[in-house]
Each structure stands twice: as C-alpha cells, then as structure tokens.
C-alpha cells in the first residue's frame, strides 16, 4: 500500500493532505499557546516550561516534545517532498504556455507553490530565531520565551517577516484545507460550501491569532 | 460510351442464406446451420473492420472476444468519435416493459410497414428478435439508460408506432451506446486482440481471386499509403448522406469505403432511398457547413404548425389559435405529430411550397411547446428536453421556451447501401457490410430509433455469427503477397488518384464542388423527385465531374496531414455515387417511403407505390465511371406483412 | 464582421510553430466559429497557401473532436464546444487568438490538431465493464436506483475532448479520468471491477505524463458538458478505498 501511495500522483496528494492536516492541527495548538503571551510573562513562561514536562511521570523530561517534533519534521519532509515531486510533474506536463495569457483561478490556488516556499523559509528562520536562538536579535535567553518574543518583534524585520509569513499561511490553509478534503474524498457537491467555510474560518482565525502577537508587541500591549 | 441513364438489366440477385420455414425460426435455424470455426483456430484468422461506430465498434469487440485477430480502422483520432455518437432520441426494443401490446412481431410489422414494404422480411424479423438482447447487453456494459424511480428502465414513444418501446439516455442515446461499444472495443485493444488504426482512412478494397482480402488505407498524419490483409473485410463505414453536402452527418463521414467496394464488384442497393429528417434546425445562410438535428422525440410533446394564411409574417405569438394550421394533426388524426419521418418531412415541404413556411426564406415550420409547457410545467419540459432546447438556443439565439422552434427537413440517413444477403455478405465473397453501410433492414424509410438498433444488432449479434460460416468455409492458409498483381494494381490506382488530385492545381476549392453537387442533389434528388429533374441532374453530374478534374485545387502534398486532399478524394466518390442515386431514383418510377416521385401519388398527395412493377430491391453493378451500370433485381416476397397503402390517418 | 485572427501554425509534430496573423472579412454573426475558419481556409486554398488544420467532425457538440483554445479559453468564451460557439459571441474588429490544446501528453500533430490518444489508453486501462456479448442477464434483473443512474449519466456525458487538460495549468487529466471512473463505479454492473478500474486508470493517467490535480477548478469551468469538479473528489475516494482493499505485491 505504501508503494501504491507513493507511486501515484493521487497517492502523493494523499500524503500531502494528511501531512498538511497534521501540521494544521499543530498550528491550532501552537496559536492557542501563543495567545497566553497576553496574560503576562509568568503564565507564558510557565506554559513554555510545561511543554517540556507534558506526560510526566510516564514520559521523561522533553520526551513528549521531541515526539511532537519528530512527527512534525516527518510531516514537513513528506509534505515538501511530495510538493516538490508533484510540482515537477505538473510543470513537465505543461511545457508550452499559451500565447494568450489569462488571469486564472483564485489567488490562493496560484500561490500555493510560492506560499509553500515562503513558509518553508519562514520555518527555518523561526526555529533559528526562537528555538535555537542562533539568529535571535539581542541576547537569546533559554527558558525565557516571553522576553525572546518581545525581542524579535521589537525589530522591524522581525515583524515584517512574521506577518508576511502568516498571511501566506492563511492563504495556504484556505486552499490547502479544502484541497485536502477533496483529496481524501470527503468533498462532494452538497458539502462543498461547508468545507469552504471551514477552510476560510480556519485560515482567518489562525492568521489573526498568530499576527496578534507581533501586533501586541508593536502596540505595547505586550511588553 | 453509352449514356448513363441507359442501364441494362442483368440476372436477378437473390438472398440464398435465409433458411426456409416460419420467419420466427429462421435465425435460429441459420445459426445452427452455419459452420463454426474452432475457438483454437480463430486467432489464425484476421478480420478487418472499417469504422468504429455502433456497428463497427460492436462487431470489432465481439469478434475479438470470440478469438479472432481484428484489425480495425477509423478516420477519426479516436474510435469514440464515430458519428453514431450524435444519435439523440433512442433505441427500439420489443421488451414490452410497458405492457402496451408490444411484441417482436409488432416491431417486425411496424418496421416492414414503416419501410413502405421495400425491406426483406427475414432480415427485419431477425432485427426485431435481437432487439431485446441489445438492451440486456448494453445495460450489462453500464450504459446509463433513463430509469424510473423504481430503478427500472424508462421508455418513450417514437414516430410511426403506437407503443412505447424506445429506450433512451436523455437526448444522448447514441453517445451512450457508442461509448459502451467503444469501451468494449478498448478492452479488446488492451488485451491485444484488436490492432487499432485511428486516423487511418480506407481508400480501396483489395480483391484477390474474387475474394476480399484486404484494404488500402492512408495514414492521415503521415500520408503513408499501406495495404492491410485479412481473411475477411467488414465495412461499417456508415451512410452516404454527405453526398448532399448539407446533412446531419458528421463533416468527415464519407462514402469512399462503400463506393470503392462497389467499384470492385459489390452491388449497391437502393441508392435513392435517403431519409429526410423532419425536425432539423433551418439553415441560416450560404456559410452553412452542416445541419443540426433536433430529436424526433420532440414530436412527442411539441405541436407542428404553420399559419393558415400565405405570407403571414406576424411573429408566432401574434398569430391567434384559429389562424394556425396544425397540419399533421389535421391530416393524420390518429398518429398526429408522430407520423413517420418521410410523411412529416413531405408535409412540411408541401406547406412551405404553398407559401406558408415561416422564418427566413419561408423554409421552416413551427414546433411549438407552449401547450406542453402549459400542461406539464416548464420544469418537466426542461427535464425531458433541456439539452435539446439549450442546443437550439445556442445555434439560433432564440429561446424555445418562449417562441416556438423553427424546424425544416434535412438529409439524415441513407437506407440504401451495399447489397447484402441474410449473412450480411456483399456480392464479393469475404466482404461484409453492416450498419448504415448496408441496405438491409429499413426498406424505403427508416423508423426513428431503429438505426441504433440495427447497428448494434448487426455488430454484436448477426455478423459475429454469420462470419464464422464464411471463415470456416474459406480457410485462407495462404498469405496475400504484397507483390500480387491485384495488390499492386489497386495500390497504383490509389497513388495515381491522389497524385492527379494534387497535380491539377486549378482554381476551385474542394468545398465549392461539394456544395455545387449537394445543391443539385437536394434540388433534383431530395424530398420530391421528377423524371425531368432527375434527367437534368444526370446531365449535369458528368459536367461537374469533368470540371472537377480540370479545376480542383488541392494545396500541399500527399506525404503529410492534408485535410484538403482527404476532402477532395471523398468528393471524387460522391460525384459518382450521386449519379447512381439519380439513376436509381429515375428508374424507380413509383413513390415509396423516402423516395417520392411526383408522378406517382394518390389523389390526396400520399406516396403511391407500384408493387406490380417495383416490389424489388434494386442492386446495381458497377461497370465503369460514367458508364451505364447493370441492374440486378432482388424480388421481395411478403409472406407475413401484406403490402397495403400505408395509412397513418 | 471583420476580424483579425492570430493562429498557431506548425507544419508537423517536429517543426517549430509560431502565431500567424490573418484578416477575415464578411463574417456573419450566425456562423459557427468553425464556419468562420472554413471561410479563412477557402481563401487560403485559393491563394495557394496551406489551410489551417483543425480537428472537427460532428459539428453538433457531441463527438469531442473540435479543440481550440480561443483567446486563452479552451473552446472559447462560452461554455460549449468550439463547433457550437457562434460568431455572435464576438464583435466586429476583434482580434482573436487561436491556439491548440497545450499539454505534453497531447503533442501537436499539425497547426491546431493534437494527438489525444492518451485518453484512449486511459480508457483501455480499465474504463469499461467486462461484459462479453451474449453473456448479459435480462436488463431488469438488476434495478438501479434513479439517483445512481442519474449520477452515472451525469459523468458518462464526457465527450473526451480534452478541454479539461487544456485548461488545467498542470495539464492534468483528473476530470476526464474521474468522469469515467464515477460513471462505471456507481453502477451495480461496474462493482466487480470497481477497485482495479480506478487503480489502473489512475496509473495509466500518470504514465501518460499528465500533471497532478491542484484543484484549481479550471477543468470544470472549461468542460463543455459540465462534468462537476467534485467528480475528482469522488474518484479520490474510490482510489483510497481501492488502495485499502487491494493488496498488491
């Protein structure tokens, strides 16, 4: 079955849909966690620490977190690899362009590929900035995520990169969620409106929820 | 050189294959008497099938299922595009699912009568018998026929009958049946049992030692001309309605395969029996390249009328009820709008000739759904005929829900074709003709929804049984050599013909000749024919031929994709066939079915048959281009359905 | 009407192609688009030029032969086949761009004619019900619920023209393939081959070099027969179901 999945364009789309939904689920949790920043450094830092101790005493310190990280990395790799291979197939299938050009399909559909690349680059920066601290502006303080977040969003480029990426994320989810539903065969004519609404609501909530943090820092609500 | 009209009469021709005995037992008897080919030996036999429509597609698939090696051809880019796909209304079958008194015998009776007693009883009865199996076969293949809420098949009525025996798939029955056959064909292609040559057109027949042994065909992409050999050749290349230039046939449907076979010795029967379909969209101007049919099923609910007064130019909506003439309902009260096609067409022509036609040039009559919409509601009408109404609106830019449709008769089908016996064998041993390409089952007029029935009956059931007998009796153990003089001759003739077409380099396009020929045929050999007109046409056709060979201009070369060359080559054959059609129409000095000779009509203007003189099928034998052919008569014997003056009043 | 046409001209599959410009005059509103091209070709022949090659046959919107991209739209501005498009959809003085279907699985044969045999091979891979002639049971032995029959019909309407592929930015044949899969898989007669059909047809579709589906919806917008976009989701469901059910080496 694995081979059938991976050898087929429909199978690869399934891989993309499932990995995308895993990441989407993670993002919902991540976004809710982020909002704790509006309740002060104590609560936010406590939440960050709790992430490392989830599952104790059954799990050792950070085991759960690593487990989540492994699943996420697998999802990202699967998603990106399928996307790359499918895109190559798509481009090869349509080598000659029409002379008469037309603006086609919705913005979100057309920007899936570029949006995906933007998001991939963003994830790298995001990890280097707030997880490892390698690319953090000012001094990165492990165990003090509240301050680290404020540092990042106190720079203009930190805000710009983050907000642009979150807008890309919104568009990506808007088409991606609906698209995943089609790939998994959930979509049909009667359900179409429901699925599109859910996709739009998810995209909007996640984008707004994530962008609230830099906006909060910029406006001084979070300091 | 003798005058073309001075034909000679040769020996009569007779069907020797239909067994004696009660008509309902003949098919079983024939199948039992026919020799069989051992299944293990079948793959050693190659059968060529030309065409992939309902007849060719179903025959190719079935022969391949039986184990024969099939080599199949179509000029289209895919076998799925054969013109059977355009049939709209439905397919008849004597299932009697409606419990309305239908039976095999009634379908047999209706078809013989509908054909105005010019068809062979044995063949028609077999067709009616097989009709029920066709529906079973198609349902098993997944053809999505219309169904009722109980999940069972729905039927509707068609012209010329008083039972509801027409199975349909909305207005696309031909498409669905053809795709069924195409899918069966595809299965056999995938299994390696059929070698499919799409975009390859048959240009001639290879006859070796008096038997059909192959064809010459041109690859339409590369222009390469090749010979293909087989133990038997089946022509399923359709009808010749395109002789008229404007018809409901596909643009590329052509008569080359049957005409070339005729030139090689196959008799051509009843060429003047052409069907003019009453409900087509009228032409809009000289640019018109083809005509579009509106399904006969529309006559179930639409009412046909013209103004009572001559030259009434008021819009339809402003003509009050008592100033309208629902002429079919008036003249034929018991069948009303559902009279057979030939009668409906002629009636439309008559009212237009009286000056009561509507629309541009007065060449049209109204087909009005106002009553149906009032009675059933717009929604029900939409459900039943929506796609046809849309098509009409797209072509005419008029809304048929609000203003009545305008319709006019157009050439639609040809009952004539290659003469075949009960086994569907032509007069050349090893050459079979099925579907519209043969002349067999419809006599002088075909009933609606019977073409699909005949195509599939021939392809799925009749030919696969009868061809066994020929192959068993003629085991060709020898391969035909490409060096055989007969092969080299036919190849050289084909090369020469195409080379000549390219060499003329004149000043007229192929279409201009086709249009001229078509207009001549429509005028003199169309809905009504006279001796004077036919003689005029017979004088004019040789002149057109002469002019064609002096003035035709075909650009490009023969070694490439060249649509002008394809067209020009088809016109060569149309011109010769047109001549034979006119001669056949001239010699048959009676009216019957679609062949209406003005000299032969009843006092109230109906077709008057002359059974004492013309109760035969006219099978013509080719002599030479422009030379008088030889007539062979096949006497028609009616043991079960006794010829009467057809009455639909 | 007077029009300027810019038409893709390409001598054969191996030759380079380019757009050529032609002026046509005396075009009637009632002409079909193909009759307009006939007019151009008549002029070209008399001038001794090579007429424009294009596929066409029934000219009543059902055979699926005609296949032109007109001003960037497969089959032009109306939702119909090219042969059913009429010149009243254009204005006097318009410039019209005419190009062939573009997809690597549909190589150009000449001018506006492309090779669509890839579609035939997809059908050959499983787009049928194995019902040899003569083996059929009585038609009424298996009733088919009307909604299923209607669903099958809606998908069976596909004419195989390839507009879906031409319109898709990925050159994907998902709509074509799904139409046949859905037509046959919903019927009780198609059930025995339900799994192999969808797996084999999708496999062949991939092998032909068609692109994947990114659900842009262009295909369904271009489809002259209105095969709906959810058709693709329905096929995906069939495919996943088949993948689970069929154990393959």
Description:
Chain A: Keywords: Membrane, Transmembrane, Transmembrane helix. Chain A: InterPro entries: Cytochrome_b-558, SQR/QFR_C/D. Chain A: It comes from Streptomyces antnestii. The complex is a heterotrimer of chains A (223), B (649) and C (249). With 223 residues, chain A is mainly α. Chain A has nine helices and no strands. Chain A starts with a helix and ends with a helix. Chain B has 17 helices and 21 strands. The longest helix of chain B has 25 residues. In chain B, 62% of the residues are buried. The model of chain B has no long low-confidence stretch (mean pLDDT 95). Chain C has 249 residues and is α+β, with helices and mostly antiparallel strands. Chain C has two domains: 108 residues, Beta-grasp domain (Ubiquitin-like (UB roll)); 129 residues, Fumarate Reductase Iron-sulfur Protein, Chain B, domain 2, CATH 1.10.1060.10. In chain C, the strands form two sheets. A five-stranded mixed sheet of chain C has the order 2-1-5-3-4. A two-stranded antiparallel ribbon of chain C has the order 6-7. In chain C, strand 6 and strand 7 form a beta hairpin. The chains are: A mainly alpha (223), B alpha+beta (649), C alpha+beta (249).
Helix/strand order of chain C:
EEHEEEEEHHHHHHH
Distance between the termini of chain A: 52 Å
CATH homologous superfamily of the largest domain in chain C - what is it?
Alpha-helical ferredoxin
From the coordinates shown, what is the CATH architecture of chain A? Up-down Bundle
Write the layout of secondary structure elements.
The complex is a heterotrimer of chains A (223), B (649) and C (249).
Chain A: H1 2-7, H2 9-34, H3 41-53, H4 63-93, H5 107-110, H6 112-130, H7 145-153, H8 156-183, H9 192-219
Chain B: E1 8-9, H1 26-33, H2 39-42, E2 46-50, H3 54-66, E3 69-73, E4 91-92, H4 104-114, H5 121-140, E5 155-156, E6 166-167, H6 173-190, E7 194-197, E8 200-208, E9 211-219, E10 225-229, E11 232-235, H7 256-263, E12 268-269, E13 274-280, E14 303-307, E15 324-325, H8 327-331, H9 341-353, E16 365-368, H10 370-376, H11 378-396, E17 405-414, E18 417-418, E19 431-433, H12 451-473, H13 485-504, H14 510-524, H15 531-551, H16 563-587, H17 611-614, E20 616-621, E21 630-635
Parallel strand pairs in B: 1-21, 2-3, 2-11, 3-7, 11-19
Antiparallel strand pairs in B: 4-6, 5-6, 8-9, 9-10, 12-18, 12-20, 13-17, 14-15, 14-16, 16-17, 20-21
Helix pairs in contact in B: 3-6, 3-12, 4-5, 5-12, 10-11, 14-15, 14-16, 15-16
Chain C: E1 3-10, E2 17-24, H1 33-46, E3 69-70, E4 73-74, E5 95-99, E6 108-110, E7 113-114, H2 117-124, H3 146-156, H4 163-167, H5 174-185, H6 194-207, H7 218-222, H8 230-245
Parallel strand pairs in C: 1-5
Antiparallel strand pairs in C: 1-2, 3-4, 3-5, 6-7
Helix pairs in contact in C: 2-6, 3-5, 5-6, 5-8, 6-8
